[in-house]
Sequence to fold (406 residues):
Amino acid sequence: MRLALNANVRVTALAGALLLTACSGGSSSGGTGGSTLGSGGTNAGTGGALSGTGGGKGGSTATGGTPGTGGESTGTGGSSKGGETGSGGAAGHVGGTGGGAGAPSGGATGHGGTGPGSGGAGGATGGNGGATGAGGSGGAATVTCPSPALTSGDSNKTVQVGSLSRTYILHVPTAYKGNTPVPLVVDFHPLGGSGSQEESSPYKAQTDPEGVVTAYPNGESGPSGAAWNVGPCCVANVDDVAFARALVAQVEGVACIDTKRVYAVGFSMGGGMSHYVACHAADLFAAVAPASFDLLQENEAGCTPPRPIAEICFRSSNDTVVPYAGGASSLVPGMPVNFLGAVGTFQKWAQIDNCTGSPTATDSNNCQYYKSCGGGVQVGLCTMNTGHAPGNATIGWPFIKQYTLP
Fold:
């Protein structure tokens, strides 16, 4: 079944989501060897405040043991600095082994040496001086703008994802100059739609004046037309998360993109895909703004992002395609799903993002928020009365653009 949502787009609505903590290993000869193993710095990374030399201070708040070998300013072990722009590991460990002669930083897991009382192990995935991000307390990513700069306008792009050649439209606004990193917005179309039709998205009016680059991807064909694979629906045997990753990587290769400010938005099934990349690519997308779609009973258990991610959802109380209250839907043949509902999705994201307390009262825009969430993010729900319709970009864009990847 297909539903016409406006004059140009046919949709049915179904659709699909660091602390930088690491310490350098100290020398077994440094410090006084406290009775307790040192803890890793809470925001530290090799290549931090003292460049990770020996048991040196591994960042703005890292300390060694109590006093612990490789303590705050002693130790003469490892001589290698962290990566040139490397941050600590993705999720550092509490102190443990280390000491000895610190191994060169930048390793995959980057633990310190093997002696007792070190400053702790490196992060789980970044290690000492990980591949990206600044050392120490984690400054902005270093971006080298491609030259020559892209000219404004739209262009059709192709990127290979496995055995499939996937396509998208790259939109470069006239305000883009190519000499300063700008955000990238990936705007997903509804079921039965296309990237070219999604260019009517309300976000363009908000982002173009700021020089923001936008990509409009095209979904593969499913039982009800071009669709996104969000688990149980709505196109089979397609990895759309891999497509999103490949698209972003390709755009970052040709445009001057701030890699910490990549966002996903979308309407109807495109909103579902925005939810889905928040669940499964929160390391790539800083925040998302889905509209007219929920999380599903079938995919909520798999929504385990590696960090809290900011999310604001726009839902209409009189939506007859994706009912505000949620429930079962069989609109896509052979792919039945169960929507969590607007409030159910709001509460689920609050749980996923470790929010505490109650949401705020609704404001003048009929939006409410969980504001005390992990990682300093917020979760929002804006209730409209516009039927099955795109979200309010004048609210959505200011909300998501305030967030950056840690």
